[in-house]
Amino acid sequence: MNFKEKFAPYFPAIVMFAIAVIVMLLTYKDYGVAWDEPLQRGPGLLSYNYAFHGNQELFQKPNDNHGAGYEIPLVMLEKAFHLTDKREIFRMRHVVTHLLFLVSAFSLYVLAYRLFKNKFVASIGFLMLVCAPRLYAHSYFNSKDIPFLSMFIITLAVCRLAFDKDKGGLFFLVGLLCGYATSIRIMGVMLGLFIFIYLIIDLVNRLAKKERLVKPVVNIVLYIAGFCSLLVAAWPYLWKSPVHNFVESFSKLSRFELWNGSVMFGGTFFESTKLPGSYLPTWFFITNPVLWLIAGFAGMVWIVKDFFSDPGNILKDKERRNYILYVACFLSPVIAVYLFHSIIYDDWRHLYFIYPSFIMMALFFINKLLANKAVLKNKYYTWAIKGACGLQLAMVIFFMIQSHPLQQVYFNEFVSHEDEYLRKNYEMDYWGVSNYQALRYILNNDESKHIFVTTIFPEILQNNIDELDEDDRSRVTLVHPDSADYFITNFRFHPDDFFPDTKEYYSDKVLGSTVIKVYTNFNSKDSLKKAHGN
């Protein structure tokens, strides 16, 4: 097989990746800075200063116990390129995080093609990830959940290759990748455990066949060595006491309660620590494209049915047991949330990493349909299946273009899109990145040399003032409401229009609901009292 034939199957992924990079280069400056971005960078700086300068502040300040595996490389890039301006720092972070997301989409294509041997199915997998509206927007400003999702996919892809080739070096690489993923989000240990179980199954199979055990034992040792070495190396908080600090972090993060605010769900405000059990499944069902939901759950049922019909042979089959791994990686975190009473808020972003496994189950179902004898005999069935996938993608892409750069406010057809329904029932732009669009509008339409703005939560607005270029930044000042020209709100914690005697200066709607609004001529005291519910 020559070079062209070897890489021809991956040509669609190369083209889609190139297009996605071009789109990124044209649009990455449109995204604002999220509420949590500076908070996330802070622990990264502490870990960096300890790792490279011996600064002990990492252990002296309250630790949220999240790993710094992704934040440290971002700080290293920041230092390497001598970035000091906040605008340049956060734009660099946006680009790097999005590129990692695209690399993971490419990895998903490779994984899907190697499993299904179908370029159409693999291409749909790539697009299901990249064109997931919420994930796409988050892939710029969410350095918590998206990097973990990305490393999860990359690890799954290399894991499949390692078991297929049965080479110790690949298992060491899988261990490194899985250890690094765990240094970003501690739930990576779950994937590490599943891979370890498969290695034990291979060992037992060889033992039953009375074959030599050297190779499977070496694979296990190399896998564990890779996992532990990079987990500890990438997470400086573990350096002083790896086992104790890891157990401490796992214990705290399993019931993470750092933030105890209010969350709107179904038109009612709940404490973030006391959300109803329906919160997680409801958000998953109303924020993913309908056809993908149908395909994913149908694929999961099909896989589980096949497994229980012949569990022993499926676990021994290095191809078919991949699908069981995807079911486990999708269901186990959800079960763990309810089992450990873990805190989940801000839609289902804490579990975004289960989506790649869901995609693989959906692709399993789509591939089964396309490989069905009746479908193969009738080309109209084939075109109907492909047409349905194409239509769903077209609908999602149209939404993403129309709502740019607020794709994170995506809701499917399972929830009403009537006028202001979403704003009054669900959290929309909970991280406040839309404040950047509001600021840009004010600056483009108000020629004043000095512009005074205010909001309920100054941190969010300041983040996005820092995102402006130097000239515009010098024109905008965040002030007390009594001195402000404009009041900006993204309706966090207050879904209503509560301002009496005000004039709307700017607003942006997505799916019929207002995401961001700017007011003028407002009575600051009455307005702020109503905003805080007093």
Question: Can you tell me about this structure?
Answer:
With 534 residues, the chain is of the alpha/beta class. It has 2 domains: 3-399, no CATH class; 425-531, no CATH class. It has 25 helices and 7 strands. It has a 5-stranded mixed beta sheet with strand order 4-3-5-7-6. The protein has a two-stranded antiparallel sheet with strand order 1-2. The longest helix is centred in the first third of the chain and has 31 residues, at 86-116.
Tags for this entry?
two-stranded antiparallel sheet, 63% helix, 534 residues, 2 domains, five-stranded mixed sheet, 25 helices
Proportion of residues in β-strands: 5-15%
| Unreliable residue runs | none
Distance between the termini: 73 Å
Care to count the β-strands?
Answer: 7
User: In oligomeric terms, what are we looking at?
Assistant: single chain
- Residues in helix, %: 55-70%
Our Rg estimate from Cα atoms comes to 24 Å
* Main sheet characteristics: 5 strands, mixed
**Helix segment count?**
25
Number of domains: 2
| Inertia-based shape | globular
Enumerate the strands of the largest sheet in spatial order, edge to edge or round the barrel: 4-3-5-7-6
Which class do the helix and strand fractions yield? alpha/beta
Report the mean per-residue pLDDT as an integer: 91
